[in-house]
Amino acid sequence: MEIISSQYLISNPDFSQCPKPDRPEYAFIGRSNVGKSSLINMITNNKSLAKTSSAPGKTQLINHFEITSSPSPLHKAEKGGGKGVRWYIVDLPGYGYAKISQSSRRRWEQMIENYIRKRENLVCLFVLIDNRHEPQAIDIEFINQLGKWGVPFVLVFTKSDKNKPAATTRNVDSFLSVLAQTWEQPPPYFVTSAFNKAGRELLLDYIEKLNKGFNRL
Ligand code: GTP
Ligand code: MG
After folding, report:
1. 57, 92, 99, 122: which has the fewest Cβ within 10 Å?
2. Is the distance from the beta carbon of residue 99 to the nearest atom of ligand 1 less than 6 Å?
3. CA 77/CA 56 separation, integer angstroms
4. Report field, pTM of the whole predicted structure over 0.90
5. Mean of all residue pLDDT scores within the chain
6. Structural domain spans, the chain
7. Cα dihedral value 130, 45, 210, 110, nearest 10
């Protein structure tokens, strides 16, 4: 799958104001500064799409981006099927940012919970984990909460360029072994780098497969 175009659409504080849920949607979430916005830019090959920053807490709202990707060869042959496939990417604010008040934190939790539980076209949540660290309680708790809510998700280990491959594997394994305490089956996962584009093809293939499932509904 090739990305034909990507553009910013709208930012909202509330899921009920989000665009019409008429196409598949993929949202990116994870600790503040984990690399959500950078990963979105890497996937779409568009450096200026989502705003990134070395200061945590940059993304504050539910940000929608409109993506058009090339149709699969199969799709192309169908009548009207040559136009490309349209879907949404959503950049969400990070969790675990220390310098916010209790009330802002609660507002964030409510906004995110509403969005991920009620957004009907949300096909998959990409939960980003910084690959440089040991498993963090805040990530594990968030993932366990997704399990209770029954929200489909996959893991994306970010910033793999900052580690040697052996350290990346070790950190992924240790994260999955903590999850194994609460999960029977490990979730699918990807290892990525926004700097050297590692993981891009696999992520796009995964989205393409899910897009096909959505369009069959
Ligand atoms: P918030 O919106 O504040 O929650 O942050 P975010 O998760 O969107 O992170 P963002 O993409 O803004 O990136 C945070 C910092 O990490 C920036 O300084 C990026 O340049 C850096 N960064 C992101 N991805 C990578 C990566 O794959 N490798 C390296 N080395 N640095 C990265
Ligand atoms: Mg961001």
Report:
1. 99
2. no
3. 46
4. yes
5. 91
6. 2-212
7. 50
Report the atom number in ligand 1 closest to the C-alpha of 94: 4
Give the residue among 14, 40, 17 at the shortest CA–CA distance from 27.
40
Q: What does the pLDDT average to over 106-112?
A: 89
Substitution site in 11, 29, 38 for ligand 1 pocket (most atoms within 8 Å of beta carbon): 38
Q: Is 169 in the pocket of ligand 1 (CB under 6 A)?
A: no
User: What kind of architecture, by CATH, is found in domain 2-212?
Assistant: 3-Layer(aba) Sandwich (3.40)
Q: Is the pLDDT of residue 78 over 70?
A: no
For the stretch 11-57, pLDDT in tens is: 999 999 999 999 999 999 999 899 999 999 999 999 999 988 888 77
